[in-house]
Amino acid sequence: MSDVKNRLMSWESALLVLLIGSWSVASLTVEGFSGTSNMSFLLLDVSEIALMAIPLTLVVITGEIDLSVASTLGLTSAIIGTLWDAGLTIESIFVIALLVGAVCGLVNGLLVTRLGLPSLAVTIGTLALYRGLAYVVLGDKAVADFPQVYTGWATGSIGPIPKPILLVAVLAVIAGVILHATPLGRSVFALGYNQEAAYFAGIRVKRIKLWLFVASGVFASLAGIVYTLRYSSARADNGTGLELAVVAAVLLGGVSFFGGRGTLPGVLTGVLVFGVLRNALILADVSNEVLNFVTGLLLISSVLAPNLATLVRNRRSRTVTPPPLMEGTSV
Amino acid sequence: MSEPQVSDPTPVLALADVSKSFGAVQALRGVRLSLFAGEIHALAGENGAGKSTLVKTFAGVHRPDDGQVLLNGEPVVFHSPADAQHAGVAVIYQEPTLFPDLTVAENIFMGRQPRGAFGRLDRGAMNAAAEELFARLGVVLDPAGPARGLSIADQQVVEIAKAISRDAKILIMDEPTAALTGREVERLFAVARTLASHGCALLFISHRLEEIFSLCQRVTILRDGAWIATESVSDLTEDDLVQRMVGRELTELYPKVAVDPGEVALEVSRLTREGVFTDVSFNVRRGEIVALAGLVGAGRSEVARAIFGVDRWDAGSVAVEGKPLRAGSPTTAMAAGVALVPEDRRQQGLVMELSIERNMAVTGMKRLRRGPIIRGSAERALASDWATRLQLKYSRLSDAVGVLSGGNQQKVVLGKWLSTDPKVLIIDEPTRGIDVGTKAEVHRLLSNLAAEGLAVLMISSDLPEVLGMADRILVMHEGRLTAEIARADATEEKVMAAATGRGEAAA
Fold first, then answer.
1. Which CATH superfamily groups domain B13-98+150-246?
2. Per CATH, which fold does B250-337+422-507 belong to?
3. Is the Cβ pair A196, B362 closer than 8 Å?
4. Could you tell me which residues come within 8 angstroms of residue B359 by beta carbon, excluding any fewer than 6 positions away?
5. Where along chain B do the CATH 3.40.50.300 domains lie?
6. Does ipTM top 0.85?
7. Residue B354 and residue A1: Cβ atoms within 8 Å?
8. B369 contacts in A (CB within 8 Å)?
9. What's the pLDDT score for residue B503?
10. Touching check for B57 and chain A: CB below 8 Å?
11. Where are its TM segments located (chain A) (predicted)?
12. Alpha helices in B167-310 (DSSP H)
């Protein structure tokens, strides 16, 4: 374990260096990057990604994936627009929106845990399904004119810290404690490494996975609420393609795509790295296509990097350290 | 040291004063071993004695730091497993890895399939060649059948056939019998003897001493990576062998103390899971060790899984101290005081990547909390307490459990379950793949636990263990209980008769 921990720690410190490095380079080369207002905007701009990345971290550690988060965000936004048009109060709309997110997550979770379908396939399916549903609900309309109290909250800040980021921070701390210090968190890691052994130890594997999918849906619709209020615009295509940014941030944050490994602080750092790169590129007038290119590059390199590191380590130490699980190491 | 009765005095394969270390761990220290054509040579030692490293040195996985590998008396260096294969060395592992979707013959001739016209696979020729190999080995297997669904014993035979088809002169069998039933072991031994009579040299590794005595001519003993002795098997007794392996005298291997059984702790009535086991009824009392014997596949592990709730049952009931359990819920079974030490340590018993302490604590996390948070100090205290009580050999509790030897891994599984303070302990193959020293410790532990009032249901394919440890023996055959034998009346013959369905032993 200490070995695994060391590896994680070094991954996280490397990530921290990357964050500071890209920050410094951007400050020096990109005009307007280092100003306080841009820093505020940078943080605000990653708040939805961070919200979706928090539960996704746990989902990926259990060895599953949820690619439908950005579509759930869009569906939430479309439903907020429709209901607001229909004259419901905004508070009741928020409640309904979160319920919709829960149902979206529940559908994913049930398909994965009850029918035993692979989550990659299921959530690619619901990625299309929920987005399609969003268009069915709202069409290509845009609904605006939400109450100033709420849009003001979504764009406001305390000092340089945007208010939605405070919400993210509170939720991240709670999720971090759950993941790293409670029985539930321990169970998540155990079942991520070996589902069968976890089940044999009395861990409710399916139930935990189901609830994590539900949490993922709820957080996605929370992101949908923030997104809609922040732009004061409910549209069916809100957040299109954002799932890739979320997955990139989670993997960049050191979570193993194969389950078992990962930390929440790492993922939050990953989100920030992603935010800095995106913000700097936007300020430098780089086109959207290039932004997609960068997201793709980040995704691939964050999956590749741990493997490369292991490869290099093994090659260097081939004759020095014993291979794991070797007979001679026990005594 | 006595020479085997062969004409050619040059060993076909030998190690001369081979040393090998991994970092600070000295796995082999000046080990020597000579394999002669036509002999079956045993390699004995506790877990961690260096057997695996020795096998891997022969197989071309490791290269010695010091000393030489000699092939027909000439020094060679195997740079890779392929080198060793070309030199005629084949290793048969405990659990072979065949391609399940290919036929038996295709597996044997993988990569060297005979070709017909236009480069098409010549299945006829391939199957005929496989048939001939099986005939030479004296076994009956369908070459055209799929490899999927073959028993482990049959898979090993396929691996052996593959090795023979490649002209292997040296066969290394690394614990081939661990997962085999008595009859399968006999067949494997017959194959081994046939090979030896055709001039192959065999190196045989097993934790079951009686197998070494019935199959092998010579035995080389390793302890802590060092060569201890090479002896003619006929010059040794089992006690001599054990003593040299562990370097101390073992008291009794099966130290079950007599206990007056108490209340019924586990009551299983008419339990049925369709197609798996039928109408199974028995009870286990406090203080009792009840063995569940039978052949592999008789449904013993499946009954255990159902009791613990990992699988559902279709009919019948299970009660712990009079309170009925719900089907299909490990959580309720645990809450009622049932613990299951499963058959497959690596897949089911432990999370190999997690630390010793995390594995120990996984069953009792709720009791280690302050508020919602797990106290790291309490977790560590629990793990270190059980590590001491079970005499676990480890360097740090934060080490991944996967680096421990098999016996120590089993102790971690035991600790993880004993820390839940169970009323009923179900233990499936308690000592499979565990060295003799630790085996005796596990037996003593089980005996003490029973004496303290724990009800133990022990599934075992190891007949001496069953006869030595159990107060009562239940025997299963094809999903049904066929006999219950009291300790006083139990003999290997009676148990085997019931296990193979020869009814007269059924009481």
1. P-loop containing nucleotide triphosphate hydrolases (3.40.50.300)
2. Rossmann fold (3.40.50)
3. no
4. B350, B351, B401, B412, B413, B416
5. 13-98+150-246, 250-337+422-507
6. no
7. yes
8. 182-183
9. 54
10. no
11. 42-61, 68-87, 93-113, 120-138, 165-189, 210-229, 241-259, 290-309
12. 182-197, 209-215, 238-246, 300-308
